[in-house]
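Hello forum,

I keep getting stuck at the same step: I have a sequence, I want structure tokens, and every attempt I make locally crashes halfway through. Rather than fight my setup again tonight, could one of you with a working pipeline run this one for me? It's a single chain of 206 residues.
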Amino acid sequence: MELKGKTILVTGATGFIGRRLVERLVEEEGANVRALARSAEKATKFKQELSPLSVEVVIGDLSNLESLKNAAQGCQIIFHCAAWASDRGTREDFFKANVTGTKNIVDAAISTKCQKFILVSSISVYGFEPKDGTDETFAYDPTSGFYSETKVESEKVVKVAMEKEKLPAVIIRPGSVYGPRSGAWTLRPIKAIKDGKMFLIAGGKG
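Reply #2:
Ran it on my machine without issues. Output:
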């Protein structure tokens, strides 16, 4: 699908993946991006950090369907990147953000006749240690906590909408993601490899 000139809504736009996606869509694809932020404070900060890129920022919450319908109005494409991905939180926290939130943005996409919906899921739907060669034909194995469990459920929400409502959707499952603004735990090993200083603890047997 040609993205130039399309109006694209990105949820989770202030997050690690979402922010870089927004930048790429504007800089390289020529899209008109509408970024979802949970508060006016986050919206203001986000616009300042992305300046001089031209990005429309709207206030909305995944728990508020009407705010999502307003945000999605006039958008041809929706990238749903928002998720509760913290190491901490209750099952209710994860379920509210990752399952109920996905249900709401899917409903908004359907009601506004979105032409393409992209769910950014996770390789964690296959468990803590996916087998070599794992692909989309493998069965779910959400054994690595509330995050993987609710990511599976969020995918099911989208699949139901695809089947029953004919929502034109795609589900992607990134693995370990790194890039601009990565944490030190990602950058330090890469820098060490680049500098030829990478080492294995206990010779790789530890």
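The beta strands are 7-11, 32-37, 56-59, 77-80, 116-120, 169-172. If your local run keeps crashing, start a new thread with the error log.
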